[in-house]
Write a structure and sequence with these properties.
By secondary structure, this protein is of the alpha/beta class. About 65% of the residues lie in helices and about 5% in strands.
Length: about 425
């Protein structure tokens, strides 16, 4: 039986360099396909009697295998990758070696190929792809994995955020093949020196931070230590939230040893940035014991209900990230008892309730969340996702209203929600 392999890639206009490269990649995949009796198809080769977009979506969602070329970080390719990921079916991610992938979106193994005009690079790419296909052949192209709701939602939201930043022309990305290895390694000093010749330390740090060059930003932070504490602290918190364990370590050390030097607002910001780092790096369990001590220190400094609510919200985020949902639920409940004026608090509580299998309760808090006049796209998308699952007929109208609001704020998130309609 002939199986279908659908190629998701940038295509470009006829005669363009993008089309030439895309055709070369397609030719490579067709050669691989012949060996495995795979019918290799790209979007421009889809022939259907119905709407062409529907035919393409059908291929993305039902093909035995998808091979995805992320070269150029094309928004449509990213979106289609999200659709394929949702199915849990086999896929292979590829990109040219010079492609800079956003590490916060793509944590999957990627085949980086060279110049396909060169025989050696062509053969190397072909062999690498065949090794992946061999594994799927052994598995008879069964589901690569069961994608959980939480993992799926997080992955798709990250893809959507990257798409929208690309659409705005403001995306700054870097190589997934280098980012994790860059932490703990020395950046070439010439790069730091060159930046500091052209920019003052704050500007150089901002450049490294805004382009997500984590290790470079960590080194440039050292040149900002003589700045007023509030400015330096802002940089330290921003870096930790980006995923810098070095910055998170310094924040926690400051909280543990010098908490009296900081106000309650600063302590909450420092704590929240460290939690964001642990959430991003998925290292909550490794830091469980020390964070319990830090929580005790910070809690003593909270005086007003709003401060205590903000504190318990950070505890909820940490324990939810650690998968300790019962403890997270307790913290979320305390948060709302102290302050029920923040939609984010209802959002976080609903997520924990959903993880605990309390869908009806999660729905109730999602409804309360959307009663607020202002909400961000993540809140609306989550509410839409829960409302779609509701058996209450009254929620049909509420869902449509939420979806309309979401489409105005984030069209791609709205499209993701409607994918399961």
């Amino acid at each position: 039986m002939e199986r279908v392999c659908f190629v998701i890639s940038p295509i470009g206009n006829e005669g363009s360099q993008e089309r030439i490269q895309s055709d070369k990649f397609l030719g490579l995949i067709k050669e691989v396909g012949e060996y495995y009796n795979l019918n290799v198809i790209r979007a421009d080769e889809v022939n259907g009697s119905t709407d062409i977009n529907s035919d393409i979506i059908e291929k993305i969602q039902h093909a035995d295998l998808c091979i995805i070329d992320l070269t150029g970080i094309n928004p449509n390719v990213m979106y289609e990758f999200g659709m394929r990921y949702q199915t849990g079916l086999p896929y292979i991610v590829c990109a040219r070696k010079e492609t800079k992938l956003p590490f916060d979106v793509i944590s999957r193994r990627t085949i980086f190929y060279g110049d396909l005009e060169k025989t050696s690079d062509y053969r190397e790419a072909k062999s690498a792809i065949r090794r992946f296909v061999d594994k799927y052949e052994e598995q008879d192209y069964q589901n690569a994995k069961v994608v959980g709701n939480s993992e799926l939602y997080q992955m798709l939201c990250l893809i959507v955020e990257k798409i929208e930043s690309l659409q705005k022309g403001s995306a700054q990305v870097y190589s997934a093949s280098n980012v994790n290895d860059s932490i703990g390694k020395e950046v070439v000093s010439d790069e730091v020196n060159e930046l500091l010749k052209q920019l003052d330390p704050s500007e150089a740090f901002q450049y490294a931070y805004s382009t997500n060059q984590l290790r470079l930003a960590e080194q440039l932070l050292e040149y900002c230590r003589n700045q007023p504490i509030e400015y330096f602290l802002n940089k330290l918190c921003a870096l930790a939230a980006l995923g810098s364990q070095k910055a998170a370590e310094e924040l926690l050390k400051n909280i543990s040893e010098h908490s009296a030097d900081f106000g309650s607002k600063e302590l909450i910001e420092m704590l929240g940035s460290a939690v964001s780092c642990f959430n991003r790096q998925d290292i909550e369990i490794e830091n469980l014991d020390r964070m319990q001590g830090v929580f005790a220190i910070v809690e003593e400094r909270m005086s007003s209900n709003k401060e205590r609510a903000a504190f318990f919200n950070q505890k909820e985020r940490f324990y939810a990230g650690a998968g300790m949902y019962d403890i997270a639920k307790e913290s979320a409940e305390k948060t709302l008892q102290l302050d029920d004026t923040q939609p984010a608090y209802f959002y976080n509580y609903a997520i924990v309730l959903e993880q605990l299998g309390k869908i009806d309760e999660a729905l109730e808090y999602a409804r309360r969340m959307i009663s607020f006049e202002t909400m961000d796209a993540n809140h609306l998308a989550y509410a839409c996702r829960l409302l779609k699952r509701s058996n209450d007929l009254n929620d049909v109208a509420v869902y449509e209203e939420c979806l309309n609001k979401l489409e105005k704020i984030s069209p791609y998130k709205a499209r993701l929600v409607k994918l399961n309609d």
